[in-house]
Amino acid sequence: MNAAARTAERGAATLRDPRWQAVLSRDATADGSFVYSVQTTGVYCRPSCAARRARPEHVRFFANGREAQAAGFRACKRCKPDEPSLLERYGAKVTKACRLIERAETAPSLEALAKAVSMSPYHFHRIFKQITGTTPRQYATAHRERRVRDRLQMGARVTDAIFDAGYGSNSRFYEKAGAVLGMKPRDYRAGGANATIKFAVGECSLGSILVAQSERGICAILLGDDPDALVRDLQDRFPRANLIGGDRQFEEVVAKVVGFVESPGVGLHLPLDVRGTSFQQRVWRALRSIPVGETVTYAQLAQRIGAPKAVRAVAGACASNALAVAIPCHRVIRNDGTLSGYRWGVERKRALLQKEASNAPTIDQAS
What we know:
The chain is α/β, with parallel strands linked by helices. The protein has helices at 3-16, 18-24, 65-70, 86-103, 110-116, 121-132, 136-153, 158-164, 170-174, 177-181, 185-190, 227-237, 248-262, 278-287, 298-304, 311-319, 346-359, 363-366; strands spanning 35-38, 43-45, 59-62, 74-75, 196-204, 207-213, 218-224, 242-245, 296-297, 332-333. The strands form 3 sheets. The chain has a 4-stranded mixed β-sheet with strand order 3-1-2-4. The protein has a 4-stranded mixed β-sheet with strand order 7-6-5-8, sandwiched between helices. Strands 9-10 form a two-stranded parallel ribbon. Helix 4 crosses helix 6 (121-132), helix 4 (86-103) packs across helix 7 (136-153) and helix 15 (298-304) crosses helix 16 (311-319).
C-alpha cells in the first residue's frame, strides 16, 4: 500500500469513528471521555476545542492525555485538555437544573433556574447550552415531548398522553406531532412489524457500543467487547426487522448516545422505542425514575411497581433491557449493597455507578 492509500485509509477510519462527530460538533459533553491529536501540529485537544478543525487523515484518538503524550503529542494551550472539563466544573449544577425542569408542571423561568444553582442567568444559559447542546427552554420542550412518547409506548390513550405531558390542548401537540413522533400519534402507539432499523457500532470508555434506531426511536443500546457479537444480539432481538448500516447522519445520533453514556447525568434527548411485555415496561419505567447517583435494591424496585413478591421477575426484566444506560438497570443492587449480575458485565456496572456518583449533586448543591 502506497503513502496516498494509507493516508486515505486513515481519513476513512476517522470519518467512521463516532468520536469524530463529537469533534465536528465541538461537543462539550464528550470532554473527558477521549482526546484527539493532530499530526500536523503535534498537539492533542479535548473534543470541544474551538481551534480550526483538522483534516480527518491527520487525526488520531486517545483515551486520555497520558496516551497522547506517550505517542509524542503535547497538550493544546487553547483548550487545555488536561485541566478539568466544563462538564466536571459545572455538571452537577446543570444536572440539578435538568431535574428541576423535569419535575416542574410548567417550565421554570431562566431566572428561577439560575437562582436555584447560584449562577447569573446569562452565565447559566451559556453553560447549560455548552454542556447539553440545548437551551433550558429547548430542554423543557424536549422533556415534554419525551413524556408523550413514553406514555404512548406504554399504551396510553393518545389524548391522555398529550395532557399528562403538560400540553394545554390536543391542537397544540398535533401541530407538530409529525416532527415529534415522525408519524401520527396512533401509528406511533400501535408500532408495527417488519420495521427498518439503522444501526452502527462504535467505541466508548466501556468498550464497544452498538446503537440501533427504528422509525419510533432508539431501540437498542448494547455494550460489549466483541462488535460482531453485538450485531448478532441485535439480529436475535429483531429477527423480523430490516437491519441496515447507519449513514453519516446516523453517526451523529451514535455520537449523542456515546456522549450520554459518558455523562449520564445530562440525559439522552432522543426518542426511545421501548418494546416489552406490560410487566417489563412497568419495571423499565420505574428504573428511569431512579435519580442519577442513586441506587435501589431489587426488592425496593418490586415495591415501587406494586409487586413486592415479584423480585425474581423484576430481576428478569432488568436482564431483558436492551437500552443500556437509557433504561438504567445498572442502578439496581443486591439487598446487601453489593453488585449483582449485569448483562453487559459487572465491571461496566461498577464503572457506570462510579461515573454517576462522581457527577451527582452534593447535598449542598441539591438544597
